[in-house]
Amino acid sequence: MRAVRTLRTLLVAALLVPAAVQAAAHATPSSGTDTRPAVRRSADSGPAVRHDTSPPLRSMHSARPGAPVRPDRPRRLLPHRPSAPSHDPVVQRTGGRLPRIPVTTEFEGIRSERWLPPDPNAAVGTTQIVQTVNTRLAVYTKTGDTVVPPVSTGVLWSGFGDICEGQNQSDAVVRWDGMARRWIITQLDSDEGAGRFYECLAISTGADASGSWHRYAYRYSRFNDYPKLSVWPDAYYITYNTEPLKTVCALDRARMLVGDRARQQCFETDTFDQADASSILLGSDMDGSTPPPRGAPNLLVGLGPDDSLSFWKFHVDWARPERSALTGPSVLRVAPYTPACEGDDPERCIPQKGTRQKLDSISYWPMYRFAYRNFGSHQSLVLSHAVDARGGVGERWYELRLANGRPTVHQQSTYAPDRTYRWMGSLAQDRKGNIALGYSQSSPETYPSIRITGRRAGDPRGVMTFRETVVTAGRGSQTGCKDCHRWGDYTSMAVDPVDGCTFWYTNQYQPATGNRNWRTRIAGFALPGCTPSHRDDHGRQWPGRS
């Protein structure tokens, strides 16, 4: 839900950014050099305005109908300064030499309720998969049987009061907290006319998503758009686009897990004073059961200026909040790239078969998630975003590793084995270090489809070595409405916490040409070379198998 960028916004941004800051953006040193941020503690810090524990979701969903469909909302883009086109030296121009990836499980997810965009997202637990789209959620088994049918996300807050259960909830995100074996669902609830902005979070009381949930509502002074949730040992972290600012909040995970009164600590940055003004931030999101080193801050990333990534560190101290700090940005140089369709219109960039309607590339932001995994011998994070490649669009992806707490580029590449358009990516690593990448694909000759690729940990760096696999071939294009350029706004790749090998990917596709008739698909697969284990990273036996 991002507001349409206007010429006026761009002009204002250009006037407000000091010349010295603009010069600094073009003189940014290489890896790890800090610039002076405009960071302040947000007045939104404080306790939840309301919290309780719900009845079981399985009893609430059958007792209350879903909320009425709300109208589409405009997007909100942060001010953006286009850069000069760059030659991309790390394009992968050929397909992988290994066979296509066998998809072992595949089933239909939530279908359209006549709004755009769908925001498909999913997480996997010990025995269940929870999927969310913009305003709905559902719970499935790992074979695709329905545990809780698709319902309004507001159903989860039934009886909570006028906050969170009304018609204005959207941008739902779900994560699995593998350390506590709990689910976390978050959604925003806003009434811009009344100046009322809330983030609604629910933490399951156990591993069964159809059971009861601890529920919380936090209030914000600005519209808390595009919330992105990440799991870390010391807090749940959420990033927001609160234009013209970026806001990052840490929520007291330990208290939320037991349903106690819980505070949030928030910081905000004045994006007009920052080199990475156009990008939202994503927090590092833990996969696996080996946590980061004790006391490690959450690492946040945004797309920086002039072929770089910008990083921030959020250290939270619950005993002495005055010691909490958000520091950065530090700048990490990466291989040159040009954001997809930056020279034209990134929001109407991706062609489709049989129509002049083009889709949004969202090339101005990094794609969810910023997935972290601690292998013991090293700490690794993976990330992707859409870039121009070979006359089309490719998926630029990175594996970063931490050296003394600082990110370095271990490998990077732009996946573009032909001249088609690939965007809306999400990637993750299994317990062996294999990487899977899922994304949307489209072109003038093909309908938007769901595809995946991947690589083994020991393969040559910067190469997706598995041949591209079509998970779901689209059967139509999205066209015929004012907001039909909206696609995504994100997808998600998750790793099964039980075996550590199975990837679960969800994305949208069109069953036929039309508008607001999208569907979603959930696919499970493993890369050869990862032997499923039903023990966690410390050798402990899981209590159940999927």
Question: Could you characterize the architecture of this molecule?
Answer:
The strands form eight sheets. This protein has a ten-stranded mixed β-sheet, with no helix packed on it. The longest helix has 10 residues, at 7-16. The protein is mostly beta strands and 546 residues long. β30 (421-429) and β31 form a beta hairpin. 55% of the residues are buried. It is 5% helix and 45% strand. The chain is globular, with a radius of gyration of 21 Å. Residues 25-97 are annotated as: Disordered. It comes from Streptomyces thermolineatus. This is Secreted protein. Keywords: Signal. Residues 1-23 form the signal peptide.
Gist of the model:
The protein is mostly beta strands and 546 residues long. 5% of the residues lie in helices and 45% in strands.
What key attributes describe this structure?
546 residues, mainly beta, 10-stranded mixed sheet, 37 strands, 5% helix, globular, disordered N terminus, signal, Secreted protein
> Which strand order spans the largest sheet, edge to edge or round the barrel?
1-23-22-21-20-26-27-28-29-5
Arithmetic mean pLDDT: 88
- Radius of gyration computed on alpha carbons: 21 Å
The shape is globular
Number of helices: 4
Strand content: 35-45%
Region (Disordered): 25-97
Protein name: Secreted protein
Keywords: Signal
Signal peptide: 1-23
